[in-house]
Write a structure and sequence with these properties.
Largest sheet: 6 strands, mixed
CATH superfamily of the domain at 23-96: Periplasmic binding protein-like II
Order of helices and strands: EHEHHEHEHEEHEHHEH
CATH architecture of the domain at 23-96: 3-Layer(aba) Sandwich
Radius of gyration: 19 Å
CATH topology of the domain at 23-96: D-Maltodextrin-Binding Protein, domain 2
Low-confidence stretches: none
Structural class: alpha/beta
Helix content: 25-40%
Shape: elongated
Number of strands: 8
Length: 208
């Protein structure tokens, strides 16, 4: 029961003037990237050794929150780079007209299904996954159909697609699998939904 998601980064149109004037590179990204157990602190330390600048992270809960922040700020945004959007948000992000072409040769970057875009550069990818308690569930779902039509007494926590990129990805996954039958599939799945959280961290917190 696998579906890929791809995380991308993009530069804002005003990057060169902002970075050179203030010697500060402001990066909007997500909280798990900048946390002490994420890659952000190490990336910041190593990059500052070669960029002659100060990296300033602005952390937000999720990719959807990143895009919402950019849209609200518009041309007044302080961001030079936005890091942590996924492919489901690319077209909406481009529609803001805030992003510049990266002009980077990313041909050496290999991801499942391939990816090439003049604005976004891929830096990570992974599987959408459903985490379950191996002690409580001896026969877990083997497919999305199994998940949707399984025992309603076995509950699942989902993330809100309006605020969570995994939640949005799950919504698109449902649509890709069920097509015109998606509303009926959601009605079946509804019996299994314990709650819907704003993001992954809250969902995992309830699970643990």
């Amino acid at each position: 029961m696998r579906s890929y998601f791809l995380i991308v980064a993009a530069a804002l149109a005003a990057l060169s003037s902002v970075a050179s004037a203030a010697r500060t590179l402001t990066i909007y990204t997500y909280e798990s990237f900048t946390s002490e157990w994420g890659p952000g602190p190490k990336v910041k330390a190593e990059f500052e050794k070669v960029c002659a600048c100060t990296v300033d992270y602005v952390s937000l809960p999720d990719g959807v929150a990143l895009l919402t922040r950019l849209k609200m700020e518009g041309n007044a945004t302080k961001a030079d780079i936005v890091l942590g959007l996924d492919t489901n948000l690319i077209e909406e992000a481009k529609a803001t007209n805030l992003l510049a072409e990266h002009r980077i040769d990313a041909s050496g970057v290999k991801v499942p299904g391939g990816f090439s875009d003049p604005v976004f550069v891929p830096y990570d990818y992974g599987h959408f996954a459903v985490i379950y308690d191996t002690k409580a569930m001896k026969n877990p779902p083997k497919s999305l159909k199994d998940l949707v039509e399984g025992d309603p007494e076995q509950k699942i926590v989902l993330e809100d697609p309006r605020t969570s990129t995994p939640g949005l990805g799950f919504l698109f996954w449902m649509r890709a699998v069920y097509g015109d039958q998606t509303p009926a599939a959601w009605m079946k799945l509804q019996k299994r939904i314990l709650t819907v959280t704003p993001g992954w961290s809250e969902a995992y917190g309830l699970f643990t």
